[in-house]
Amino acid sequence: MSLTPSRRSPQGRSLAARLGQSRVASRIEDEVRVTAADLVDSVAQARLKVATVRYKVEDEVRSKTQKFRSRVSEARAKLGDEARFIKSWIDNPSRTGSVTPSSPALARRMASFVDPALPGPVIEIGPGTGPVTEALIERGISEDRLILVEYSPEFCTLLRQRFPRATIVEGDAYALSTTLAGHLQDKAIAVVSSLPLFNQPPAMRSALAKDAFTLLVDSAPFIQFTYSVVSPVPRKGSGLKAFVSDWVLRNIPPARVWVYRQAV
Ligand SMILES: C[S@@+](CC[C@H](N)C(=O)[O-])C[C@H]1O[C@@H](n2cnc3c(N)ncnc32)[C@H](O)[C@@H]1O
Fold it and tell me: 147, 182 in Cβ contact below 8 A?
């Protein structure tokens, strides 16, 4: 169709011009609409990115704060244990036997001689604030298999809070079978001792080991650490075979672990 200038609209503009303009206008309108939609899309994507970054930052801050808090409370607990130990040592140095709890390295070495796959309870004597107890649990002995014999009432209170599923017996480990009467249903698979044995005469140490073996299954170990260079359980005529570990240097002072079993 040809549009001649003779066909004029009432406003005096040709139809062609008006048609042409409206096509241009509608193209512009379309482009504006697409651009606006793109813009809305970009804004939404930018918002999403900002929200994702904010979430990540908040998450990181939250986890770092949590880690920091747990390190602070670990340090507080460690300091608390050191203080409790010093207090216990001041109250009764020969019973406490040390001014500081055993290091995790020494505790782990002691626990390494217990086979968690064997069924049955594990007796710990002289658990103090519980570093060896923790290592035994870490080794795979469930808390409810642990029978802890501790003389100090303060340490017993702490142990009950820390290991609520373990059996805590407040009493004298040098009278072990009497102290444990009614607490032990089955024979144990190990006795793990941190008692300061050298503060007692040899006969008493021998009697302790002899008594302990009556509570153990055959070939189960009696495990004892010492800072001394000689065996804490007298060996002559004991009928025991013994193994001694190398020095655990990451402990103050360095210590060795003795493992005794009944010779068959
Ligand atoms: C050298 S500390 C060891 C504590 C802890 N196992 C460690 O390794 O850090 C000795 C512990 O044995 C306890 N103890 C001393 N004589 C005891 C006895 N006759 N019966 C039970 N516990 C005793 C003390 O109260 C103290 O907690």
Answer: no
52 Cα–ligand 1 center, Å: 53
Q: pLDDT tens for residues 148-189?
A: 999 999 999 999 999 999 999 999 999 999 999 999 999 999
CATH topology of domain 100-262: Rossmann fold (3.40.50)
Query: What digits encode the pLDDT tens for the residues 232-263?
Result: 999 998 999 999 999 999 999 999 999 999 99
Nearest to 132 by CA among 152, 109, 155, 99: 109
Q: CA–CA separation, 46 vs 254, rounded Å? A: 60
- The ligand 1 atom at the shortest distance from the C-alpha of residue 106 is 8
Give the Å distance between the CA of 125 and the centre of ligand 1. 7
Angle at CA 197, nearest 5°, toward 232 and 149?
125
The answer to whether the CB of 166 is under 6 A from ligand 1 is: no
Judge if the beta carbon of residue 179 lies within 6 A of ligand 1: no
Question: With a 6 A CB cut-off, is 95 part of the ligand 1 pocket?
Answer: yes
- Is 130's C-beta closer than 6 angstroms to any atom of ligand 1? no
Tell how far the Cα of 147 is from the centroid of ligand 1, in angstroms.
14
Q: How many CB atoms lie within 10 A of CB 244?
A: 14
pLDDT above 50 (res 1):
no
Instruction: Encode burial over 181-210: b for 16+ CB neighbours within 10 A, e otherwise.
Output: eeebeeebbbbbbbbbbeeeeeeebbebbb
Q: Which atom of ligand 1 is nearest to the CA of 174?
A: 19
Report the amino acid identity of residue 172.
D
